[in-house]
Design goal:
Elements: E1 5-11, E2 20-24, E3 27-33, E4 39-43, E5 57-58, E6 64-65, E7 72-73, E8 79-81, E9 99-100, E10 102-105, E11 108-113, E12 136-144, H1 148-155, H2 161-164, E13 184-185, E14 194-200, E15 218-226, E16 230-236, E17 242-253, E18 256-265, H3 278-301, H4 323-337, H5 344-353, H6 388-392
Antiparallel strand pairs: 1-11, 2-3, 3-4, 4-9, 5-6, 6-7, 7-8, 10-11, 12-18, 13-14, 14-15, 15-16, 16-17, 17-18
This protein binds FE2/S2 (inorganic) cluster (FES) and fe (ii) ion.
Fe (ii) ion binds next to loops.
């Protein structure tokens, strides 16, 4: 897992002025809306004596109040009140918690969990359809019981559809004709690779979309990444009709992931008037189908061994259809070379002992010293020649 990327925290619709605890990168955060309705994301650990801020209250002055001794913290993480000192007391400068840059986009609150200054931050994955009235969107979130890299790699894998998803291809029944066609590079960017390819798309056997496909039909689809945890999938049903899926994934810890799926489609059957209400009905149908497809993936991916991706591709036998997965791992190695990989071995050791809690560093740590909590240990910035996937290709 890595610092210095944007992570999805909560769906906008689920956030109000009650503080909520969200676990990402094996650490707790408190998320709430301030008095202006703007979302704030802070480290959840009160620097007084370790209270959990998310167990407290939001106050009228836009702060969150710790449930233990009532210290208040504003959206910048600064403590504004220590009740035990009495009214108008001077607040020590060290009385602050890490506060993270926040953006509310595509119906999701995203937080930048890291300390890079704004100009150097990798982007939130762009969704160009978001501003186009011809596209209709809706979003869901759900949890999967495995590491986020396993989840992303599953999405980058064109060869699993035939066997995992009964509504794709020939359901593994016409192997003499089946083959994964050439993967064409698509939407490569400084933070990830992508591909598109053409595959057989015979009519669906049932479901609301069964009339959308013809016998002998072909479809084009592909996926790619932006950073370790954001992935796009485009499915071109015809030259003019498409589904676009955008996944923003929050690693809860090394064994669990919260997935935020935003789906766009330019198949809007009912424009204007009373009939437009039927679009909500179709949204629900698409959601049911997405959750069904996700459940098929979960059944297989939760059984993968080892539970984390192996440190070297030498312990797997990759084929050309796995190319984007290998490229994804190379990108992760590039992020490790930058010194952004969290040292989970050390953290697990320390947390087992139970007498330390670290904080994910926020940008303010680059400007001032004297933080109460120690910054999370990171794997030392590596020599590119010594990182496993870059060596093995
Ligand atoms: S632990 Fe938070 S106010 Fe004391
Ligand atoms: Fe899948």
């Amino acid at each position: 897992m890595f610092i210095n990327f944007w992570y999805p925290v909560i769906r906008s619709a689920e956030l109000g002025t009650t503080p909520q605890r969200v676990r990402i990168l094996s650490h707790n955060f408190v998320v709430f809306r301030d008095a202006q309705g703007k979302p704030a994301v802070l480290s959840d650990t009160c620097v007084h004596r370790g209270g959990s801020l998310s167990g407290g209250k939001c106050k009228d002055d836009g702060t969150v109040q710790c449930p233990y001794h009532g210290w208040r913290f504003n959206r910048d993480g600064q403590c504004t009140r220590i009740p035990s000192l009495g009214i108008n007391a001077k607040i020590p400068t060290r009385a602050r918690v890490d506060a993270y840059p926040v953006e509310e986009r595509y119906g999701i609150v995203h937080a930048f969990l890291g300390d890079l200054p704004e100009a150097e931050r990798p982007p939130i994955m762009p969704i160009f359809e978001a501003d186009d009235p011809n596209w209709r969107s809706h979003s869901i979130s759900f949890e999967v019981p495995y590491h986020y890299e396993r989840s992303i790699e599953n999405g980058l894998d064109p060869a699993h559809n035939e066997y995992v998803h009964t509504t794709h291809g020939h359901q593994g029944e016409r192997e003499s004709e089946y083959k994964v066609n050439e993967l064409e590079p698509s939407q490569d960017n400084p933070w990830g690779y992508g591909f598109m390819h053409t595959y057989d798309a015979p009519p669906l056997r049932n479901g609301v979309l069964r009339f959308s496909r013809r016998k002998g039909g072909k479809m084009q689809a592909g996926s790619g990444t932006y950073g370790p945890n954001q992935m796009w999938t485009h499915i071109n049903i015809s030259p003019t009709k498409s589904m676009r899926q955008y996944l923003f994934e929050a690693p809860i810890d090394e064994r669990h992931t919260r997935v935020f799926l935003v789906t766009y489609r330019n198949i809007v059957f009912f424009k204007g008037g009373l009939l437009s209400k039927l679009n909500n009905w179709l949204d629900r149908k698409v959601t049911v189908r997405n959750l069904f497809v996700a459940s098929q993936d979960i059944t297989v991916v939760k059984q993968l061994q080892p539970v984390l991706t192996p440190p070297s591709t030498a312990r797997e036998l990759m084929m050309p259809a796995d190319r984007i997965i290998a490229q994804y791992r190379e990108k992760l190695d590039e992020f490790e070379v930058k010194g952004w990989r969290i040292d989970m071995e050390r953290i697990k050791r320390d947390y087992e002992r139970g007498n330390v809690i670290y904080a994910i560093p926020s940008p303010a740590r680059r400007e001032s010293k004297g933080w109460v909590l120690e910054s999370i240990p990171l794997v030392a910035a590596a020599d590119p020649g010594k990182v496993a996937h870059l060596v093995t290709g």
